[in-house]
Specification:
By secondary structure, the chain is an all-alpha fold. It has 2 domains: 76 residues, Helix Hairpins (Orthogonal Bundle); 121 residues, E3 ubiquitin-protein ligase SopA (Pectate Lyase C-like, 3 Solenoid). The chain is built from 4 helices and 2 strands, in the order H-H-H-H-E-E. The longest helix is centred in the N-terminal third of the chain and has 37 residues. The radius of gyration is 24 Å and the shape is globular. InterPro entries: 5peptide_repeat, DnaJ_domain, J_dom_sf, Pentapeptide-BTB/POZ_domain. Pfam families: DnaJ (PF00226), Pentapeptide (PF00805). This is Molecular chaperone DnaJ. Keywords: Coiled coil.
Length: 236
Amino acid sequence: MSEFEQYYRVLELEPGATFEEVTQAYKDLAFVWHPDRLPKDNSRLQEKAQKKLQEINEAREQLRLSKMKYQRLHYSASHYSAPSAQKQPTEKTYQHSAPSAQKQPTEKSYQPPHPNPDLSGKDYSRANLQNKDLSGRNMSYANLSGANLSDTFMHKVNLRGANLSEANLFRANLLLADLREANFRGANLVGADLSGADLRGANFMGARMKSGDRLLVKLVGANLAGAIMPDGKIYE
């Protein structure tokens, strides 16, 4: 079994499944294996859940990168293809009328689009970004207040200083994200995964992160130094 076939198997899919199917399978499995849904006192299940989440995250990320690579190669092939053979003028035609010079395309015209454009400081307030893939994007200081980011994939996204107040981040994936000084006031973070994220100085005042005493946000390995928690206390 090839490496990519194994990634499909991890996501319980057949090889060749569409990326939309990959994304949906990832979300389903991430929900099933979320450690907060398992007994806290069962270390065996907690360890198994952590391992499963690592596997499905890696599988989805590798299949996403493979798709991006294919798209870039396809784009390059379609834009750099050799020009079709043109009919050569006969000697008589050449003697009387030389073909007019054609404008050669500049190198800039053939540059493929950058896969991760800079979105820093952009205004996405109230925007519907549900299910979007924003992984690796630079969205520092962007305005995402009131935006719908539910089920959005934001692995390693840079949201430093971003305004996410009142945003819906239900089941959003923010693994290893840069969220320093981000504003989450009143945001819905239920089911979000912020494992390994840098949350230093982030503001969570009034954010929805719990059900009773049960924390419903995954914060494994996250850096919360100086963060303002929902109850107004500063995390030390």
